């Protein structure tokens, strides 16, 4: 049985998921947005930051998201930022399909992560991802533009947002340009921790 296609992101209260400039990705504002992730025990274990860390709802959600993901798909902008920032043992531990216009041989990293570069569009990348994922889920990892392309194409089954109590003011809005005439949502989960509010929606055709 094929898995589901989903995305899971952190969003500021005013709707942004990343700074506007590639030079600011992984910078102070982005780190503030993602501050709920860094203390969690699972995050520390997955990136080999040592023992310890927080447990609870936030930690459970990070672990569940990782465990359901059989393959990730991402855009070139996200890959370019991560290529410089991810450790040799990249945190995915699955195949990753990068939607790009640049041809490149697969890039194998330690820990089971191999990046494959797909030059013939988002649907081709998803087809390859589904085949590789088997009965596990496919995560559209980002960035915001790539997520929006999949949403507007009707290819996303479900998504989760961790709403961070901060304001960006500018940057990349998650739903800027969404084709709302084609997308209906059903809320299936809403939980809060002291750090963020977790919202999960099923996506239906309108």
From TrEMBL:
Coiled coil (residue ranges): none
Single GO BP term: riboflavin biosynthetic process
Annotated signal peptide: none
Record domain Bacterial bifunctional deaminase-reductase C-terminal: where: 5-196
GO molecular function: 5-amino-6-(5-phosphoribosylamino)uracil reductase activity
Pfam families xref list: RibD_C
InterPro entries reported for this sequence: DHFR-like_dom_sf (IPR024072), RibDG_C (IPR002734), Riboflavin_Biosynth_HTPR (IPR050765)
Protein name in UniProt: Bifunctional deaminase-reductase domain-containing protein
Species assigned in the record: Actinoplanes friuliensis DSM 7358
